[in-house]
Design a protein that fits this description.
The structure is a single chain. By secondary structure, the protein is of the alpha/beta class. It folds into two domains: about 10-115 and about 235-250, Nucleotidyltransferase, domain 5 (2-Layer Sandwich), CATH 3.30.420; about 125-230, ATPase, nucleotide binding domain (Nucleotidyltransferase, domain 5, 2-Layer Sandwich), CATH 3.30.420. It has seven helices and 15 strands. It has helices spanning about 45-60, 95-100, 110-120, 165-170, 175-180, 185-200, 240-250; strands at about 10-15, 20-25, 30, 35-40, 65-70, 75, 80, 105-110, 130-135, 140-145, 150, 160, 165, 205-210, 230. Strands 1, 2, 3, 4, 5 and 8 form a six-stranded mixed sheet that branches. The longest helix is centred in the C-terminal third of the chain and has 19 residues, at about 185-200. It starts with 7 loop residues before the first strand and ends in a 5-residue tail after the last helix. InterPro entries: ATPase_NBD, ROK. Keywords: Kinase, Transferase. This is Polyphosphate glucokinase. Belongs to the ROK (NagC/XylR) family.
């Protein structure tokens, strides 16, 4: 195992389909070890998910600070919702579950929030003052709201009502796939959603992430809104990096 620099932490990114982790160099935002990924257990109840987290930590030989993203509203380490994981997580002290099984110093935060702080430090929002909103387009729409680089946690802007629906029901990349929409058709929906968010928050920058951001050239140029839009830069590593940052800097709500 390579010698670690002092400014490192272990990041775990928990999603509905996969759980991945790596040691992060917090001075550069780069992964200091190879990213390892395992499938999310089915059912994704606390015990089997915690066992996967423990496996990642053990295989890395890690004993220090551990940050973990979770697809839920997280308050004081407790899951208040459960998106794309088993509903038995609601009310569970995620921090305690992971601390007990890994014996590490654990910090848990919302997955989109983790991506947001990573992009603000190392990615598309680096050095941007004012209001930045990161939106991740995937199974739903995750959000992170930042003011001068500082996170306002648990915004859940994908659940804004738009035209009688949760916005993510119509504008997520999952909606694009399930309805067989072209990028042009889907971009019109994203534009409608972004204009709504724009009217509410008047942001200085939108950062768009999620797997579909890899194809940003096919849809971001089609958006006609006042706010600048940048594709996320850290892509699949954003959650891991943000989780490690939160652990190292003792992120709190």
């Amino acid at each position: 195992m390579p010698t670690m620099r002092t400014s490192t932490a272990f990041g775990v990114d928990i999603g509905g389909s996969g759980i991945k982790g790596a040691v992060v160099d917090l001075e550069t935002g780069d992964l200091a070890t190879e990213r390892v990924k395992y499938l999310t257990p089915d059912p994704s109840t606390p015990e089997p998910v915690a066992e996967v987290v423990a496996r990642l930590v053990k295989e890395a030989g890690w004993t220090g600070e551990l940050g973990a993203t979770f697809p839920a509203v997280i308050k004081n380490g407790v899951a208040k919702t459960a998106a794309n994981v088993d509903k038995s997580w609601i009310g569970t002290d995620v921090d305690k579950v992971f601390t007990d099984i890994t014996h590490c110093d654990v910090t848990v935060l919302n997955d989109a929030d983790a991506a947001g702080i990573a992009e603000a430090r190392f990615g598309a929002a680096k050095g941007v003052d004012g209001v930045v909103i990161l939106l991740t387009f995937g199974t739903g729409i995750g959000s992170a709201l930042l003011l001068d680089g500082r996170l306002v946690p648990n915004t859940e802007l994908g659940h804004l009502e738009l035209d009688g629906y949760d916005a993510e029901k119509k504008a997520s990349s999952a909606a694009k796939d399930s309805e067989g929409l072209s990028f042009k058709q889907w971009a019109k929906r994203v534009q409608r959603y972004l204009r709504h968010v724009e009217n509410l928050f008047t942001p200085d920058l939108f950062v768009v992430g999620g797997g579909i951001s890899k194809h940003a050239d096919k849809w971001v140029p089609l958006l006609e809104i006042s706010t600048p839009v940048k594709p996320a830069q850290l892509l699949n590593n954003a959650g891991i990096v943000g989780a490690a940052m939160a652990a190292h800097e003792k992120f709190t709500e």
